[in-house]
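Posting for a labmate who doesn't have an account.
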Amino acid sequence: MKETSKGCYDLQIGNHLLKGKAIDLPKQLVMTEKCFNGETGAIEYRVRAIIKRKILFAGRPTPLRLNQQAEFAQGLSKMRKLN
């Protein structure tokens, strides 16, 4: 996934490109993990993440040509070097 501008993202799946934008959720979501406590024998739920935003892909995927795939891959490699 590549951020094209503030709040806009491109996602490449195979030879298809999806364009979307990040939106804030009205209610936050909690991702939990179910764990078994061996000492007490109780089942616990641990909070793994709090989800505040989601990316909404409204349009249909557009097929990419070979030169577009190469340009997209070059953009991703530049992002990886910055991180």
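Reply:
Got it, the structure tokens are right above this. The CA atoms of residues 28 and 52 lie 5 Å apart.
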